[in-house]
Amino acid sequence: MEHDQEQEACVEQTQRYCVQRPIYNQELLQGQLHKRQRTSQTLGQRIAHSCRCSSKKAKSHLYSFLPILKWLPRYPVKEYLLGDIISGISTGVMQLPQGLAYALLAAVPPVFGLYSSFYPVFLYTFFGTSKHISIGTFAVVSMMVGSVAVREVPDEIISLDSNSTNTTDVLEYYSARDSKRVQVAVALAFLSGIIQLCLGFLRFGFLSIYLTEPLVRGFTTAAAVHVFTSQLKYLLGIKTSRYSGPLSVVYSIAAVLSKITTTNIAALIVGLTCIVLLLIGKEINLRFKKKLPVPIPMEIIVVIIGTGVSYGMNLNESYKVDVVGNIPQGLRAPAVPEIQLIPAVFVDAVAIAIVGFSMAVSMAKIFALKHGYTIDGNQELIALGICNSVGSFFQTISITCSMSRSLVQESTGGKTQIAGTLSAVMVLLVIVAIGYLFEPLPQTVLAAIVMVNLKGMLKQFGDVMHFWRTSKIELAIWVAAFVASLFLGLDYGLLTAVTFAMITVIYRTQSPEYRILGQIPNTDIYCDVEEYEEVKEYPGIKIFQANTSLYFANSESYTRALKKKTGVDPGALLKARRKAQKRHAREIKAANEHRKKAVLKLVSPSTNDVEASVKHEIASDDLPVNGKLEDSSVQDMSPDEHEHFVEPKSSIHSLILDFTPVNFVDSVGAKTLKSIIKEYKEVGVCVCIASCSGPVMNELTRLNFFDKSVTRELLFHSIHDAVLACQVKDGSAAQADFHL
Predict the structure, then answer these.
(1) From start to end of 369-441, where are the E strands?
(2) Which of 507, 528, 562 is the last residue of a domain?
(3) Which of 494, 354, 417, 438 is nearest to 113 (CA)?
(4) Could you tell me the pLDDT band of residue 148, with boundaries at 50, 70 and 90?
(5) Collapsed DSSP state (helix, strand, coil) of residue 626
(6) What share of residues in the chain are helix, strand, coil (percent, to 5)?
(7) Which residues cross the membrane (predicted)?
(8) Interacting residues of 292 by C-beta distance below 8 A, sequence separation 6+
(9) Quick check: is 491 in a domain?
């Protein structure tokens, strides 16, 4: 027992500290410190230094641009190869059906989805820094591409005689329409790739931070609704036009409902059967995740079954079920994208470039954190830019990271992008050898695959309750991103969501929390007096804190909150003083006049007695001294004149502004601060600034904040330094021993 008590006493003793030092203001502190000498370089010297090349620097840049040169020579074959092979095959069997399905979303023939699942995946192996993400087609980006393609090449743009029943004419119509839409999609991929390349070389990888998690989740949820709506016509076997732009979701649903009576029952049965099988397969994979060596590839199984049933029952001819159709065998010759389309799709390309990068880098960061390696955001931009721009010469559409395939690639034992390369090889085999086997595949099967893969994104509706409990502002961002993207379209919706997110940042800086701080007894720790019972204020000293920087947008609110929280409004106090002085002067004047009149009315037999009486009356009166009235007491004021301030002037002699949360001050903020110091000085309150950081000090110096009336002696290293200095100045603690 005694040993335990000694141990507790020892622990208690080690948790205390005692510091005895002078009270530091910035003037005194800077006088005792010596700044390091820094040699500033001219612009020419900095450019020359950056352009200087050495073998070490060249090697570093080469490894940064081609990360494969760094990890491939050190590739541990025995440890990694088997896992990469299994992962590559598993990802490849998902890549095939998703490539075909997401091509429909992009409004291009399915074979172009296969091209987009080969070239970019192969290129990313050389230039990407993530070891686990799966590059290729993705629902959200494909949907954005499809909306642009449909907008630029609507169904009505290709002329077709409405009375024509010739099958050849109809086929030529669809062929011409699809060819033009492919040109738009390819131009979009080329331009988005160039934008990503430029952003990467300019080191703009930080742009992803502006797409916050609530914004991305709200945006992708709206995109999932767009995708789901666009697939209804394929699931039901209905012929409707495809819409893009604002309210496209509403128009698509209205078009489907208007033709719901023409539903192809055979297509609906096949689609619903595939949805049930896919959901069962996903549930099995989820429940028996640890027991299964690899996930069951339900998507490729459904594709094979659907193709076999369609071929055996001749669904296209017998039941009018739409099928994939012609899949050209072999790779297409490279061709230059249609450059003249660039002005029409520039804004959309910017949106796709940013969304694609955001999706890829967010997934890459998750896997990098889990497996203990780092990724380079700028290099990821360059890698995606190369995949999109170079791939566009081989007729690919815009690509990014796929969430579902990335999870499969990582969970099945993938260690490096060798797994991605193997999945690309599988796609290549289909393109050059067996692609024609998938021509009878019903489009409703691809629609089922797309819809089931939206399950994860549609679950994000649960974010509403989560953000409601945690942060109302993040909930507002989520709702704004969802509603704007749903009704304005994905391009304008993203722009609106980013703008709204920026506005919330401004709102937070304009609506900060203001606090009055007090001391925890016998410490140099200061906390909110309204939050803790133990915290006490020093008599005559107010410590004010605002958790924001001081700049043009919040300078007025800062001043208002300061007056409200401290209970001292210098303007109101000076106004009340002037009113009291004027009232007192009027009272004296009225009293004098009354007495003079009273004296004049007196009838006295002796003029000398009258003069003596007048002199006596005047002498007994309170006349102005040296031409000035005597100061009137503030206590003589009426209650109305006290309403602007809580405490009398004598109870507050010092005001300390805690600048710990302040990150920057602009010219308006500096003028506001100077005005505060001047106004409070007029009513006898000394204003000090505590815990001002070095960068803020430098900004104040550049803004000519310091002069004869405002010196560095008003700035203190800490709140406690300022409190002790204010006590010394007031004389209440002149003899105190200032150590803790």
Answers:
(1) 400-402
(2) 507
(3) 438
(4) very high
(5) coil
(6) 65, 5, 30
(7) 100-127, 133-150, 184-211, 249-280, 292-313, 341-361, 418-438, 475-507
(8) 284, 285
(9) yes
Provide the CATH number for the domain around residue 656: 3.30.750.24
Three-state DSSP state, 566: helix
Q: Is residue 320 a part of any domain in this protein?
A: yes
Q: Write the pLDDT tens digit of every residue in 402-437.
A: 888 888 888 888 899 999 999 999 999 999 988 888
Same domain assignment for residues 444 and 483: yes
Confidence tier at 85 by pLDDT (50, 70, 90) = very high
Same domain, 218 and 277: yes
Name the packing angle between helices 342-371 and 213-236 (round to 10°). Answer: 110
Residue 404 covered by a domain: yes
pLDDT for 359 beyond 80 = yes
Output the average pLDDT for the chain. 83
Output phi, psi for 296, to 5 deg.
-70, 120
Predicted confidence (pLDDT) per residue in 490-532, tens digit: 888 888 999 999 999 888 877 788 999 999 888 888 999 998 8
Predicted local confidence at residue 191, as pLDDT: 96
Q: How far apart are the first and last CA of the chain?
A: 31
What backbone torsions phi and psi does residue 376 show, to the nearest 5 degrees? -110, 110
* Sign of the torsion angle spanned by Cα atoms 403, 409, 410, 415: negative
Amino acid at 608: N
pTM recorded for the entire structure: 0.76
Residue environment code for 153-182, b if the CB has 16+ CB neighbours within 10 A, otherwise e = beeeebebeeeeeeeeeeeebeeebbebbb
Q: Which of 458, 487, 507 is the last residue of a domain?
A: 507
Calculate Rg over the CA atoms of the chain.
39
Same domain, 469 and 548: no
Query: What are the backbone angles phi and psi of residue 693, rounded to the nearest 5°?
Result: -70, 165
Task: Give the CA distances from residue 426 to residues 308, 328, 591, in Å, rounded to whole numbers and listed in that order.
Answer: 20, 17, 109
pLDDT confidence tier of residue 195, bands split at 50, 70 and 90: very high
Q: Is residue 372 part of a domain?
A: yes
Give CA 247 to chain center in angstroms. Answer: 26
Residues 213 and 109 in one domain: yes
391 and 261 co-located in one domain: yes
Residues 331 and 323: their CA atoms lie apart, in Å, by 22
Which domain does 361 fall in, by range?
76-156+195-507
Domain count, the chain: 2
Between 234 and 636, name the one with better pLDDT. Answer: 234
My answer on whether 290 and 142 are in the same domain is: yes
Which helix (H) or strand (E) segment is 657 a member of?
Answer: strand 654-658
Mean pLDDT within 338-350 = 92
- The pLDDT tens digits of the residues spanning 97-143 come to 899 999 988 999 989 999 999 999 999 999 999 999 999 999 889 99
Clarify whether residues 326 and 201 are in a common domain: yes
What does DSSP say about strands 514-519 and 541-546: parallel, antiparallel, or unpaired?
Answer: antiparallel
DSSP one-letter string for 260-280: GGG--HHHHHHHHHHHHHHHH
pLDDT of residue 6: 54
Alpha helices in 652-708 (DSSP H): 667-682, 694-702
d(CA 528, CA 520): 10
Distances (CA, A) of 260 to 235, 255, 265, 267, 272: 11, 9, 11, 13, 16
Helices (H), 511-619: 555-566, 570-601, 607-619
Place of tokens 């393109």: 431
Q: Is the per-residue pLDDT at 645 higher than 60?
A: no
Q: What is the DSSP string of 90-103?
A: HHHHHHHHHHHHHH
